[in-house]
């Protein structure tokens, strides 16, 4: 197994110039962990000033599309994203759905009284009618428990129903392989193809056999949180999947950013370039375009 020191040395000597037409499938521009939030808690102009240079950096590296994964009630702001998209010239996608992780901070009280079907209607309405300046291009959800509890199951079922009706892919924050397999069962019960399911944070699961099981069922296995400190593990996961002819079901991203509402100046805004300049040079050349261009298009359209 390659060592972390070797990874760092390789990155220093093999910086990639970029990949034209590439997609970052899981990043953030702004997050407000205060719970049910409003734009009045921050200045959009300040966020644009801080975030725009970070986005311009990856545009120069070939980034064409950027999936902003901040969910509703944790800082989703389509007007801000539209402003940045126009300014930088990158497609920025927002999402619909309800996110059940993060100690349920993003779960409004009304959700508890709704059925999955009625909740799905809300997602479908946003996907059809748009949210202010943008239409959601994917569904974001997240589960808190493993095994899934009643609320988690409702959120996943609502996302699956909305996916069936809209054709949008579901990206689900899921910390364990057991929970991911349960989510696939719900998708099957709702007669939604596993190809519409993205297992977000699959890198947190150390049992690689579950990565394989989800991929062979048709789901997408997303190794995100790519960073210098975790590069060896992420590359091992990708290689393991490639050796089993499953590279075509792998997504990678950084879960990076972001302007953190409530911190002075938005806190430490991490940029988005490492995956290009540090991580991709450590992968087999034949893998790079598939992971950054082909697979994101297949997963999200």
What do these coordinates show?
With 301 residues, the chain is α/β, with parallel strands linked by helices. The protein has a six-stranded parallel beta sheet. The protein has one domain (20-300): Metal-dependent hydrolases (TIM Barrel), CATH 3.20.20. The protein has helices spanning 4-13, 44-60, 78-88, 116-129, 150-166, 177-189, 208-216, 231-243, 274-279, 285-300; strands at 22-27, 30-31, 63-68, 91-93, 95-96, 138-142, 170-173, 197-200, 220-223, 250-252, 259-260. The protein is 42% helix and 14% strand. Residues 1-14 have low confidence and may be disordered. Helix 2 (44-60) packs across helix 3 and helix 4 crosses helix 5 (150-166). Strand 6 (138-142), helix 5 and strand 7 (170-173) form a beta-alpha-beta unit. The chain contains ten helices and eleven strands.
CATH homologous superfamily placement = Metal-dependent hydrolases
Query: Based on CA inertia axes, which overall geometry fits?
Result: globular
- Percent in helix: 40-55%
Residue ranges: pLDDT <50 for 5 or more in a row? 1-14
**Secondary structure tally, helices:** 10
Sheet with the most strands? Answer: 6 strands, parallel
From the 3D coordinates, which CATH architecture would you assign? Alpha-Beta Barrel
Order of helices and strands: HEEHEHEEHEHEHEHEHEEHH
CATH class, please? Alpha Beta
| Through-space gap between termini | 35 Å
Residues in β-strands, percent = 5-15%
Strand order of the largest sheet: 5-6-7-8-9-10
Number of domains: 1
Q: Quick check: average pLDDT? A: 94
C-alpha-based Rg, rounded: 18 Å
CATH topology: TIM Barrel
Structural class: alpha/beta
DSSP E strands, number: 11
């Amino acid at each position: 197994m390659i060592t972390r020191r070797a990874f760092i040395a390789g990155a220093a000597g093999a910086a990639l110039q970029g990949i034209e037409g590439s997609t970052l499938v899981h990043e953030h521009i702004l997050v407000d962990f205060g719970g049910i939030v409003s734009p009045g808690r921050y200045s959009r102009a300040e966020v644009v000033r801080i975030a725009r240079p970070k986005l311009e950096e990856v545009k120069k590296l070939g980034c064409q599309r950027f999936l902003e994964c901040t969910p509703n009630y944790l800082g989703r702001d389509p007007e801000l994203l539209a402003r940045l998209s126009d300014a930088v010239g990158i497609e920025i996608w927002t999402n619909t759905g309800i996110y059940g992780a993060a100690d349920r901070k993003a779960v409004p009280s009304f959700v508890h009284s709704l059925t999955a079907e009625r909740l799905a209607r809300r997602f479908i309405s946003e996907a059809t009618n748009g949210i202010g300046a943008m239409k959601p291009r994917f569904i974001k959800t997240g589960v808190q428990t493993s095994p899934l509890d009643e609320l988690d199951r409702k959120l996943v079922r609502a996302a699956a129903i909305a996916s069936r009706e809209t054709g949008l892919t579901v990206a689900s924050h899921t910390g364990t392989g057991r929970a991911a397999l349960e989510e696939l069962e719900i998708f099957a019960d709702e007669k939604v193809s596993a190809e519409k399911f993205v297992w977000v944070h699959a890198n947190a699961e150390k049992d690689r056999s579950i990565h394989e099981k989800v991929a062979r069922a048709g789901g997408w296995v997303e190794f995100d949180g790519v960073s210098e400190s975790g590069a060896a593990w992420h590359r091992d996961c990708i290689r393991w999947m490639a050796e089993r002819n499953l590279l075509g079901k792998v997504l990678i991203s950084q879960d990076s950013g972001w302007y953190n509402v409530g911190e002075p100046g938005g806190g430490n805004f991490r940029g988005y370039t490492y995956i290009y300049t540090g991580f991709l040079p450590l992968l087999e050349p034949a893998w790079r375009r598939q992971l950054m261009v082909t697979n994101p298009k297949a997963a999200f359209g």
